Amino acid sequence: MVIKSPFPDVEIPEVPLTEFVLAHAGELGDKPALIDAPSGRTITYAQLVDSVRAVAAGLDERGFRKGEVFAHYTPNLPEYAVAFHAVATLGGINTTANPQLTAEELSSQLTASGARLLVTVPELLDKATSAARRAGVEEIFVYGEANGATRFASLRSAGKPPEVAIDPANDLLALLYSSGTTGLPKGVMLTHRNVVAQICQVSFEHVDWSGDRIVAVLPFFHTYGIVWLMNQPLYRDATVVTMPRYSLAEFLRVIQDYRITRAFVVPPIVLALAKHPLVDEFDLSSLELLGCGAAPLSAELEIACGSRLGCRTGQGYGLTETSSNTHMVPDRLTGQMPGEVGPLVPNTECRIVDIATGEDARAGEPGELCVRGPQVMKGYLNNPEATAQAIDADGWLHTGDVARLQENGSVRIVDRIKELIKYKGEQIAPAELEALLLTHPVITDAAVIPIPDEEAGEVPKAFVVTTGSITPEEVARFVAEHVAAYEKLRAVEIVEQIPKSPSGKILRRVLIERERAAAMAG
Fold this sequence. Notes:
Elements: E1 3-4, H1 17-21, E2 32-36, E3 42-44, H2 45-61, E4 69-73, H3 78-89, E5 93-96, H4 103-113, E6 115-120, H5 125-135, E7 139-142, E8 150-151, E9 172-178, E10 186-191, H6 192-202, E11 213-216, H7 223-235, E12 239-242, H8 248-257, E13 262-265, H9 267-275, E14 289-292, H10 299-309, E15 312-319, E16 324-328, E17 349-353, E18 367-372, E19 379-380, H11 384-390, E20 397-405, E21 411-416, E22 421-423, E23 426-428, H12 430-437, E24 443-453, E25 457-466, H13 472-480, E26 491-494, H14 508-521
Parallel strand pairs: 2-12, 4-5, 4-6, 5-9, 6-7, 7-8, 11-12, 11-13, 13-14, 14-15, 25-26
Antiparallel strand pairs: 1-17, 2-3, 9-10, 10-19, 15-16, 17-18, 18-20, 20-21, 22-23, 24-25
């Protein structure tokens, strides 16, 4: 059964993203568009428009052309939006990298995306330089100043950016790296129309945000951050307060000092807001709405957090491959659907499919969530096989998540087929960690599974088969030397063999069930 959104379709203009988002930004003059939380440095709406044009002109003078790739390897800063939109203005493609990536991991993304230019911050310049050299990046820019990189500010030009013909439906805006439903990272191709459509879809209620202040605590490199914390607030005339890194104390201070009205977060932050004693030391009375996404959140925790803060709460659901949301609890229904991700956003359809048969699941029964709408990606870069596996011939994106349709039309995510580990909203691909483990000379086989963790949601545990003397601590240290901090193994068990199917596929479910049984017995 095809399930349609309960909300009327919205009109999606066929325009490039920057033209759409900043259509009347110049009229807002000195109103703050973006504020750097630690320093208070502010970019007004008028300055934002001027800066985007000036940097686009400077990039053009350097020969940066439509279809070329510009990489962002930086924490959240007001200038991130300037660079992103300058690239988009020229028909360039933004590839956004997690600043926690190692030089090796960044090099892989730069190579796969074909990035020509890169911007970073002084603190990350050594890793960026190492990665860029290996990937053939032509020039590195830096926010601020640092030896060995060109100042980003020097890109500003008094000239005018060229008029570039952009086909919103086909030309790429962003190349984001996601592990999709399984396996190694793939380049998710999002067009201008994908993101414009998504902003229209999640703004369908026409709630006035012009007086709102949004805290950008989640990273701009993630589709959640790109849509909800950068572009949607600017489209809706709000003020964005950027945080380059998260700590609970700083997050609370920013809400208090900047009188934040809306916060969009992930479950570990909700957990802290609901339970940590530090929360009581700050005045959070300005906060009107707390939205949560990127990973499941229990109804109990959602209710507890909303009650403690005295604000409305709601969840949403989506993927990198869907430009962020397919489902969300709209403003007027916040607090009424705890534990649920809400109904479909406008212009979107879904099916819930029996995992065993591939047919539509019976009413009320769980099944794989498949979605279709204008926010669904163009495909995976240079990977038609993976694209075909993700999007079927009828245009349905198979999410890999197991959902149950509620009587109120909302959806509850009850489990997932895909084997990604979600650590504080970050995605960890077991296949990557397994491949790394197998490079160790005494490890002959390996499997990685998620184990529950109250703060992080899930953490990775490795099961390894060895031929020599090595301790679990040594295995964990080996992995830690090669991966970002959030990908580190939190537990290691040395075993005699890894359970596999006749075709050689690792039976992670067997290990997960074994782990659960051991936890219950313990």
